[in-house]
Amino acid sequence: MLESLFLNLGQHDALSDEEKGLLTSAMSIERYFVVGEDIVPEGSRPSHSTLIVDGLAARYKVLEGGGRQFTSLQVAGDFVDLHAFLLKTMDHGIVALSPCHVVGAGHSRLRAITEQAPHLTRLLWLDTLVDGAIHREWIVAMGRRSKTSHLAHLICELFVRLQVVRKTRDMSFHLRLSQAELADVLGLSVVHMNRVIATLRRMDVINWTNHTVTILDWQRLVDVAEFDPTYLSMRNEPR
Predict the structure, then answer these.
(1) In the CATH hierarchy, which fold is given to the domain comprising 147-232?
(2) Which residue, 158, 166, 165, 164, is CA-closest to 215?
(3) What is the pLDDT along the chain (239 residues), one digit of tens a residue?
(4) What is the reported pTM?
(5) Gap between the Cα atoms of 212 and 190, Å rounded
(6) I need a surface site. Which of 38, 123, 177, 215 has the fewest CB within 10 A?
(7) Does domain 3-137 have CATH number 2.130.10.10?
């Protein structure tokens, strides 16, 4: 059940069998969420941190006028609220964008890990640092990239992250997002979102049908996106 987590953390540094056992024993909650259901509500004070076993979710904020902005997408192997262990109160929500299977690690178990397993603690810390790096890239994309480049960057990022947890097939991956939800990612109207997708299709860099994205020309997509995966810290080295 935790294979995606082990792959995700293991891309940064090797996990020992003992560390895998500690993570497995820490998981005490298992739940399933339907599309549109909050996995972690804004303003809540979770007693556990939630890991996505399977599915797609998003961090989001809602403005007083009802406008919604997604601030990151979360895939299998991601802790969606590991930071809540220390922050306590969630300042944003996590919503399921597809049916989601999740498990939870109680904060008392996570505290024990920080006291007993320093290397594993560093890897979990790094996991939250990568979350922060992803947020920085999203801010840059939102503020400075063209919308075509922004979408290309998102596709590159998701492909690389999903490839790590073995959720891709050749150059394709499943992305169960409506165009309205994708518009909430890029901060666009649905009409403008359609035009951006059409632009990438005309460039022959992607094909997007039936919630499956197929990358037709990886290098050209990378060039359009100006994608550099350094922020994902994927180099495996001692931590």
Answers:
(1) Arc Repressor Mutant, subunit A (1.10.10)
(2) 158
(3) 899 999 999 999 999 999 999 999 999 999 999 999 999 999 999 999 999 999 999 999 888 887 788 889 999 999 999 999 999 999 999 999 999 999 999 999 999 999 999 999 999 999 999 999 999 999 999 889 999 999 999 999 999 999 999 999 999 999 988 888 888 888 888 899 999 999 999 999 999 998 999 999 999 999 999 999 999 999 999 99
(4) 0.94
(5) 19
(6) 38
(7) no
